[in-house]
Amino acid sequence: MRAVSVSTFPALSPLSIGNVNIGFPVVQAALSGYSDLPMRVIARQHGASYAICEVMLDQFLLALSKRQKTKHFLDIHPTEHPVGGQLMGAEPEQFAMGALKLVEAGFDIIDVNFGCPVKKVLGRCRGGFHLSQPDVAIDILRRTRDIVPQQIPVTVKMRRGIDDSAESRDKFFQILDGAMNAGLAAATVHGRTVQQRYVGPSRWSFLSEVKQHVGARMRILGSGDLFTAEDCLRMIEETGIDGVTVARGAIGNPWIFQQAKALAEGLPKPSPPDLNEQAAVMRAHFQLCMQTYTEQRAPLLMRKFCIKYSQCHPRHEEVRLDMTRIRTAEEFEQMLSKHYSENGGGRYIPREAHGSQEEC
Question: Whole-structure pTM over 0.85, yes or no?
């Protein structure tokens, strides 16, 4: 990969999706088990102009009650608009009704998931499975667009196909054309196939083909292998797409958004957050977790985020080990006192530390 200096990046055009003005075109993707209200709010506070909630099943939404244990799925913080709600399902009619639940909850954009490559999802004819059946996929998109009020944009998340066959490619573009004809405002395209899951490189050149295919008729956002601020800007520069959605690269690293914004403005890349800043962000994230879930549930739910935040610490292996043991709010504070009480420099998270969390 070529080295990129701050001066090589061209100015970026602000992103809009339908009638929703997003702004800076580097946004937070939907991440199963991660992109809940606390993560989205923290991302927005650090420069993400838009974020999408973790994917929800249509049948789950239709059965959702206001019980404390599940109501958080539809919670939206007053400061996070615009925010997207992502939906996944199998049956067109039920799918459309699920979309309506997201509208009623207050999401500004409804995103249809045709990209999830997880085996149990595919086995139930959901997510990426729809890329194998264009007629059903297009029916879902049409019904969803018809039931969602016109002022609320509908978008779709796709991978570049089930596999690398010519048949899969044809089906991808058939669905993409169907999305445009149905009135969808944007598509997010992951450069890997469903078969690849998270293994092997994301084919960015395919994103260029997609953008050339749709022209100005539809906004195209890219996804896949975005682990640094430079990656985000380089994808836009090399492919001509309208924006990018950061997935794994944003877990425990909300600073990636402000770093990308600085580079896009021709400024030097900000230094990694120091230990004081890391601790402050984790505390704010923990407080949001307690408000969203309850003080009892928050420590265990926060632990997976803490493990990711630890990658910014110079003694990350030692810190990570202590973070895996957090059971209570008191233990969370003890961990911060032990590892973050004395300030020092942080580090940029290396690519190999991002793992393979499910980006749906």
Answer: yes
